[in-house]
Amino acid sequence: MRTRNLFLILLVATAGLFIGASASDQTTKATGPDWAMNATIIEACSCPMFCQCYFNGEPAVHSGDEGIHKGHAQGHYCKFNNAYKVNHGHYGSTKLDGATFWIAGDLGADFSKMETDWAVLTFDPAVTKEQREGIATVMGKVYPVKWKSFTVADDAKVDWSASKDMAVAKLGGGKLGEVELTRFAGMTSEPVVIRNLRYFGAPRNDGFIMMPNKVEAYRTGEKPFEYRGTNGFMITFDIASKDFAM
């Protein structure tokens, strides 16, 4: 991982994702270009199905000695991999359609005060400078938290594919990260969906599609991890600068 250059420091700071930013700082009136994003996430984490982080201020406890968490550290944490594909969106005159990127990290033991542990953002090489600025701005609103550490990694190819029954995302061809999800079996052949549940700071979503993971792994950096059979879902969120007009 390279040291963040000046452009990326400014880009992340613009989004309110820089280290030391408070949640209140990130919920102020939107400034700068008009923007909007509709994106789908292939998401997985170390918590059991379904991740209790969406209902509580702390992640599930990981026993470390049995079941799906056997061999892993004990305690409360939520180590995640999120692979994003922008369906449509814009940042000023810049179109965001089709952009892909990846965020991996850990929410930490207690985020009840919107303070989280660490995250690493990786862009696909095809994402332009202008698109990166827009994505960083949007992500600062989707995740209005204070990270102890937030860094931007070297670019890496993001492969992203999904259907009703499965979803697969790979970072760097799977060498750097990987998520594979399969549809949770419901009463019919239709997906099991949790609706009317907020996804962090996004004001709209089409529901959490339950898809436990076969694997969710982050295989690079100083804090690699890998889990199998833990939480996973897909979700499409919608957010725009006008949502924050005051």
How much helix, percentage-wise, in residues? under 10%
For the secondary structure, the number of strands is 17
Main β sheet profile: 10 strands, mixed
Number of helices: 2
Calculate the terminal CA-CA distance, rounded to whole Å. Answer: 38 Å
Structural classification = mainly beta
Q: What is the 3D shape? A: globular
Name the average pLDDT: 87
State Rg.
17 Å
In percent terms, what proportion of residues is strand?
Answer: 35-45%
Low-confidence stretches: 1-28
**What is the string of SSEs from the N terminus onward?**
HEEEEEEEHEEEEEEEEEE
Molecular structure report:
- The protein is built from two helices and 17 strands.
- It is globular, with a radius of gyration of 17 Å.
- It is mainly beta.
- Helix content is 10%, strand content 39%.
- The strands form three sheets. Strands 1, 4, 5, 6, 7, 8, 12, 13, 14 and 17 form a ten-stranded mixed sheet that branches. Strands 9-10-11-15-16 form a five-stranded antiparallel sheet, with no helix packed on it.
- The protein has helices at 6-15, 129-142; strands at residues 35-45, 61-62, 75-76, 79-91, 94-95, 100-106, 115-123, 146-152, 158-162, 166-171, 177-182, 193-194, 204-205, 208-210, 213-218, 225-227, 232-240.
- The longest helix is centred in the middle third of the chain and has 14 residues, at 129-142.
- Strand 6 (100-106) and strand 7 (115-123) form a beta hairpin.
